[in-house]
Write a structure and sequence with these properties.
Elements: E1 3-8, E2 11-14, E3 20-28, E4 34-41, E5 48-51, E6 54-57, E7 62-69, E8 80-90, E9 101-106, E10 112-117, E11 120-123, E12 130-135, E13 141-149, E14 154-159, E15 162-165, E16 170-179, E17 189-198, E18 205-213, H1 219-241, H2 249-257, H3 320-330, E19 335-342, E20 346-347, E21 351-352, E22 357-358, E23 366-374, E24 379-385, E25 389-390, E26 397-399, E27 405-408, E28 417-424, E29 430-435, E30 439-440, E31 444-445, E32 451-455, E33 464-470
Parallel strand pairs: 2-9, 11-18
Antiparallel strand pairs: 1-3, 3-7, 4-6, 4-8, 5-7, 8-9, 10-12, 12-16, 13-15, 13-17, 14-16, 17-18, 19-20, 19-21, 19-23, 22-33, 23-27, 24-25, 24-26, 24-28, 28-32, 29-30, 29-31, 29-33
Length: 471
């Protein structure tokens, strides 16, 4: 070996976002002039520089290079001891490579960022935001979660209530807000609240949000019901006080003409003034029972016949379950088929595995969806409407493989969908939605067994127009 090296110091400490230097001394112990090339290696090499990168030494002389370590203030700079090395390659003897090694300790730092998605939620009985927590530090974060508001008007259910987040990772916390008092009549009320991320020895990180509580019935409806009840009571009181006397007009006319309604006395008994009994009603001959006009009316008694042969049986409706069963029979694996109920158009034909259902550029919203899967052990979902939002509350629709699942409503009085949640029992499901005034929102996929929301942001309440689904 024709080279001697020394790291001064061999161990160093540095803070993320700062820098430190280590001196590397090199001596040419050979008998020829040689040039040495320096190259940092190891996990810290991306943020290590060597100055100068090459050094030319005469025999018996010593030179010095400086190693500068500048770890970034990101999760990539792992806290704790990090070994490093410098590869020294002689020009004259490229096979005689020397690799001196040292140790660099990176100090830990903590940085946590949190965000409410969405920051504003609406509901009559509950609101369901999600809290996203990112660990931007270089060490593990352990935290507990809690919720607060002015006046203690809300209760909070946070799942999970405690989190552990590795460096560079993020977790999602599902929050359920419930008002302690229901607004039965009246307009909506805004209730500010905050979710706090609490860490031992650090100040709590609070994220502000707003819960908009809607009245169960609008104020105008309460006024209308009160007015209707008052009018009904007034009408009954007037009727009881001034009940009209009903009398036959025919009887009045007969009295004015001096005609009695009694029959004349019998000529065989002049003194008899008793009226004769009225004659018995004429007996009509019995009629044959009429034949039933169609089989749907229940059928005849075997008399007429031939009345129901003209009606044709309606063809069976082709649903998403029909399509996915046919597709699974042709091709093994995972499949998803679906169709959309489009306003003013009705149900479309089902499509499968990423094809487009609904319309784009025609201003025709989707009111309901019919979905069926194969190979995922079932699916579940819920629909969010533009006006009513989560019409069925926390009651999801679900169906096993090969069975139809419906979300939304085809009723004219119910507003169109603005979005929907979906999940599959086994594996993941991906969705892309086309929203009025926004276009395609981009592909999003669930984690295995988890659910996700697709469609218009809830605070914007735009019509859903088309979807694409894959599993």
């Amino acid at each position: 070996m024709s080279l001697w090296t020394s790291l001064e110091p061999a161990s160093a400490t540095v803070d993320p976002g700062a820098s430190t230097r280590v001196r590397l001394r090199v001596r040419n112990t050979g008998d020829v002039v040689d040039e040495y090339r320096f190259e940092p290696v190891g996990s810290v090499a991306p943020w290590t520089t060597v100055e100068p990168p090459t050094l030319r030494l005469f025999p018996g002389t010593t030179g010095t290079v400086e190693l500068t370590f500048a770890p970034p203030r990101t999760p990539d700079a792992t806290a704790g001891p990090n070994p490093y090395a410098v590869r020294i390659t002689p020009t004259e003897h490229p096979d005689a490579v020397t690799v001196p090694e040292g140790n660099l300790t990176v100090t830990p730092f903590t940085e946590v960022r949190a965000e409410l998605v969405p920051p504003t939620v609406k509901g009559r009985f509950r609101g369901r935001p999600r809290l996203a927590i990112d660990n931007l530090g270089n060490t593990r974060v352990t935290a507990s979660l809690s919720g607060t508001d002015t006046g203690d008007r809300l209760s909070y259910d946070l799942q999970p209530g405690n989190v552990q987040i590795e460096p560079g990772r993020a977790v999602f916390v599902d929050a359920t807000l419930r008002p302690r008092q229901i607004i039965w009549f009246g307009s909506k009320e805004e209730q500010p609240y905050a979710l706090a991320v609490r860490r031992s020895g650090a100040q709590a990180l609070e994220i502000d949000g707003t819960f908009v509580q809607r009245g169960f019935l609008p104020r105008w409806l309460a006024t209308a019901l009160s007015l209707s009840l008052a009018l009904a009571i007034a009408f009954v009181m007037i009727w009881l006080a001034y009940k009209p006397q009903v009398r036959s007009l025919a009887a009045e006319k007969l009295e004015q003409a001096g005609v009695s309604t009694l029959p004349p006395p019998s000529p065989s008994a002049p003194g008899n003034v008793k009226s004769s009994p009225p004659p018995p009603p004429e007996e009509k001959p019995a009629e044959e029972p009429a034949a039933s006009p169609s089989p749907q009316a229940g059928g005849g008694d075997g008399g007429g016949g031939g009345g129901g042969g003209d009606d044709e049986e309606k063809p069976k409706e082709r649903t998403a379950a029909t399509a996915v069963q046919e597709l699974a029979a042709r091709s093994d694996g995972r499949h998803i088929c679906y169709r959309a109920y489009v306003a003013d158009r009705g149900w479309q034909d089902p499509v499968c595995d990423g094809a487009e259902a609904g319309t784009t550029g025609k201003d025709l919203p989707v009111k309901a969806l019919n979905i069926a899967v194969a190979g995922t052990k079932g699916t579940a979902g819920n629909g969010a409407h533009v006006v009513e939002e989560w019409l069925t509350g926390d009651k999801w629709s679900s169906a096993a493989d090969g069975i139809d699942m419906y979300i939304g409503s085809t009723k004219e009085a119910v507003s169109p969908l603005q979005g929907f949640t979906i999940k599959v029992t086994d594996g993941s499901v991906c969705q892309n939605t086309h929203v009025a005034n926004k276009g395609w929102m981009g592909l999003g996929c669930t984690k295995p067994g988890d659910w996700m929301y697709g469609g218009s942001p809830m605070e914007e309440a735009q019509n859903l127009e088309a979807i694409r689904l894959t599993v």
